[in-house]
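Take a look at the protein record below and flag anything odd:
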Amino acid sequence: MKTTIIFDHPYGQAAGFNEDHNRAFTSAILVHLKETLIARGDTVDIIDLHADQFDPIMHKNDLINWRTQPFIDEQSQNYLERIQASDELIMLFPIWWEVMPAMTKGFLDKVLAKGQVKLDTQSGQRQLLPTQLTVRILTTIGTPNPIYKLKYRNPVGHMLQKGVFNKMGIKDCKVMNFNAEDMSETKRLNILKNINKYI
């Protein structure tokens, strides 16, 4: 089984080891995800948007080609091909001001291009990604989960689950927000230890 992780955090993977002045819970989740997936026998492909210096801006020529033409951006084409070859996709990023970071949004805009939709000869359906793909969205968030869900209506979760992946025919898509700032260290460590529950 191949799992691809889309990772977006400016501190990078190196911040996942709980070192003073160089730590992020998002990065710690990545470290434990990788260990867990490898332990269960998966092939793990990490797309680290910051390490790759991904350009999230939809430039004029990108948009011109977005509907019907091949990618201009070879990096975006490479990302799409890697996801298309996957059995599971995990998106991992922080939520800032109740929304996703620019790199994650730019990834969706540029990589999931309409011009790359293909006709499935068996089902007759138009597809961008395999519909049997399993998708897990894992985020870290400062807003307490009840407030994020009740007051803000879980905008990122709804947008990704219903507006992106369900729209593409992918039904197995789940979202989990981790409010690490309001958790004790014991609870954070317990989440990391049991990260397999969320994938």
